[in-house]
């Protein structure tokens, strides 16, 4: 087996390189490549994995060239530099390391708050310039002040904790923060307007979304206390930078500290040069500890996925642990094949896909199995699709996806039934995995069979009348097609029957025409798995 190949295109800790090598993955460490999008586009096609921080922009244009790419690993939290829909559409898993730099970033926010309170950078510059301006720098105390945390997730809650440690009163606005969690972490949950009105220091810790873009604009600033100090260590775009400059000029805001900017790298910005502004170049996550954490974690996660199929911290696919991956694997293979069987027999638009999980399989990660059914189902129609992209494509096509989970209703320990409703008909197919780990087809349209999925198969529905098998077999013999396995099923003597035949090699179209012409035959189809 050839080794998977990973490109590291940003300044990750070299610890990641070692992990990839130790896990048997070939790795190219090009820490400055993220800044050169043309070069990245030129070489991305050679890699199975891409490990990045925030400098690399994994745009749809770059991803177009990523023919082999299976996973993008973000050594950090924000994945706003990756076009997730484009990655998902190409079946690329996008994973991040959601906790590795939280403490470090929270500490940066607290550092900026203290620096604002005592004007440390300004006092440092003045002192080192030989000015000794003891009367110019009059700070404010932190103790007893109100800290307003906007976004109280991983980082926001650590900031809140540190704020409480500094004897501040901490209030938080976060629509997804439960009252119990607020109580546990010792913050008062408030509405945004209340926070704006009461806080002496406001610190932002939300992702940048359509709802949070410019959450701090001129109108929000107008509601703030005079003399408030503002810290943004989350994402550029949460704050209207010009509105902050205006409020600093009018002294409504006493000071602002920014680690992140609307345009990055920020080599010029309206905030720059204001005496009450402190800026750092997106250093929130930049400590040795955090960088080691995220680099190690992303390299392990990417290696797990490339080598075992285990998925953790993916933003576009459910997690699958290393323990679950081998158990899921045969069911994912079964699901792909059941979906593929249904897809190859489908001739009109799919309206609904119902997947019923019975027995042991019902206790597994069925989301992943459902994705595999959809990928198998859609591939005959769409070609380029996989378990990551299939659910999105199915949704885009307006298909209704229904999952039913229930205890075993038959002798099978586990049974998956895929029922596809099209504009013309409803078709059901069931399968299981035997102890040998091989997927088996056990029911087609309510007719029991027991067949493995061969590479090349012929599926026939016919009237159960004597003479069919002899004529069919001689047509195959005339065409020099060797039969590998032959499975028959019927509901009752004389009723509708099916035949599922595995053959060696491809099935020629003219053979299908001849089989179709047999008097007992209703439908014949060549299937490949
Ligand atoms: N400066 C840096 O270097 C740096 C480092 C790490 C993370 N970050 C950024 O910090 C931010 C927070 O990261 P995190 O790990 O704490 O994320 P998180 O997902 O754990 O927390 C985000 C919180 O924001 C809340 N939220 C979502 N929409 C909101 C809204 N409209 N109003 C108020 N709250 C809302 C969520 O409920 C959640 O609790 C992210 O933007 C991340 O990219 C920056
Ligand atoms: O989202 C993050 O993790 C931070 O913004 C850190 O970004 P960086 O890895 O580019 O420092």
UniProtKB/TrEMBL annotation:
Organism, scientific name: Bradyrhizobium cosmicum
Instruction: Offer one example of a GO biological process linked to this entry.
Output: L-serine biosynthetic process
Residue limits of the ACT domain? 457-529
Q: Which family does it belong to?
A: Belongs to the D-isomer specific 2-hydroxyacid dehydrogenase family.
Asked if the record carries the keyword Oxidoreductase, the reply is yes
Q: Which CDD domains match?
A: ACT_3PGDH-xct, PGDH_4
**Lineage from the top down?**
Bacteria, Pseudomonadati, Pseudomonadota, Alphaproteobacteria, Hyphomicrobiales
- Name of the protein in question: D-3-phosphoglycerate dehydrogenase
An example Pfam family from this entry, by short name, is: 2-Hacid_dh
